[in-house]
Amino acid sequence: MTYEEMLARLNAHRDEKYASFHSKLLHNPSVRVLGVRMPVLRALVREWKGEWESALAFPDEYYEVTFLKCNLVGALPFEKFTEHVRDVVPLIDNWATCDGFEAPCIAKHRGEFLPFVREFLADEREFVRRYALVTLLKHYMSKDYLPLIFEAVRRYGKGDYYVVMGAAWLLAEVLVRFYDAGYAFLQSGEVSRETANKAISKACDSFRVTPEQKTALKALKKRVSFSEKY
Questions:
Q1: I want to staple 182 with a disulfide (CB 3.0 to 4.6 A). Which of 27, 75, 174, 205 is the partner?
Q2: How high is the pLDDT of residue 230?
């Protein structure tokens, strides 16, 4: 497959109104969007699984191209995926590409992928760090990994807007699934005020959090002095 062939297929599914809508959601004017909807992009990933090497050489002119590159690598077996994940994670420049980057192979290799997660968490680039936080949410949401999740939120869930939002999303999911542990972590104050407040707000939006738990979280938001050193 050539780059021109990829663009021709993408343009065949182009929707100008959707492109305008999606561009506004990305909040990044430098990202060019053709306007191809997600079901089509997922179908193209399935169709082009054998074209990942060619795709890696294509320029990142459009949101859809970068999305396809990430997800074609994500569709590889774990060994190949880990060989090339560093090629695509730095290409991420918006939340939609980050959150839509799927790598099913991680589920059966969580321990082996941890060094990559830690590496990406320590990276200063906004969306590389968000990718690590979202990966924790997708693949490591279990009691065994709660210490790692809390460490990630405490040490790295601050600074850039999309990092804070990724950490808040991760912590909110902990509150939904492991409320007592999440509440105790918040109560400790070992998280930035901004991340804690956003996590509480997101958790309180969930129907899986009980009214009593929401009341307690809102009270905690007012009561705990979240340390700014975090």
A1: 174
A2: 46
CA angle 163, 168, 169 (to 5 degrees): 100
CA 208 and chain centroid, separation: 21
Per DSSP, the three-state class of 77 is coil
* Phi, psi of 142, deg, nearest 5: -145, 165
Hey, is 86 helix, strand or coil? helix
Q: In this structure, are residues 33 and 22 in contact, taking their beta carbons and an 8 Å threshold?
A: yes
Around Cβ 45, how many Cβ atoms within 10 Å?
A: 21
**Average pLDDT of the residues of the chain:** 94
Q: What CA–CA distance (Å, rounded) separates 63 from 71?
A: 12
Are 195 and 221 spatial neighbours (Cβ–Cβ below 8 Å)?
Answer: no
**Chain centroid to CA 3:** 27
Q: Which domains does the chain have, with CATH numbers?
A: 1-101 (no CATH), 109-230 (1.25.40)
